[in-house]
Amino acid sequence: QVQLVESGGGLVQPGGSLRLSCAASGIAFSVYVMGWYRQAPGKQRELVARIISGGGTNYADSVKGRFTISRDNAKNTVYLQMNSLKPDDTAVYYCNALLGVHDYWGQGTQVTVSS
């Protein structure tokens, strides 16, 4: 049974930081492309950042220079370090694991940026 469990969300003031974690089980984690997506109220789900098995990354333009995705294959965990948070970053953040037709999602964690 595949499980992706996100943690680390919460309420933070503008300019603050959060680190999201996603612990995976039931998959050969190291070969999967791992991604973070987000969905704000009334908007479509969008890609935030993605990291391939070899460590290469790509980011949405809106988060470049502020967010960093990383992975620890020994711990089957992917992280999203979010700095300089803005109110526009408020959303439910979802972890994704992708390998060919195998496409798995976590349950999401809420991030709210507000003063």
Task: Describe the structure using short key phrases.
single chain, 11 strands, mainly beta, 115 residues
In short:
By secondary structure, the chain is an all-beta fold. The protein has strands spanning 3-7, 10-12, 18-25, 33-39, 46-51, 57-59, 67-72, 77-82, 91-99, 102-105, 109-113. The protein is globular and about 40 Å long.
Distance from first to last alpha carbon: 40 Å
Shape: globular
Integer-rounded radius of gyration: 13 Å
Uncertain parts: none
Largest sheet report: 7 strands, mixed
Total DSSP helices: 0
The residue fraction in helices comes out at under 10%
Beta strand count: 11
Strand pairing plus helix content: what structural class? mainly beta
Portion of residues in beta strands equals over 45%
Mean pLDDT: 97
Q: What would your notes on this structure say?
A:
Helix content is about 0%, strand content about 55%. It is built from no helices and eleven strands. It has strands at about 5, 10, 20-25, 35-40, 45-50, 55-60, 65-70, 75-80, 90-100, 100-105, 110-115. The strands form two sheets. Strands 2, 4, 5, 6, 9, 10 and 11 form a seven-stranded mixed beta sheet that branches. The chain is globular and about 40 Å long.
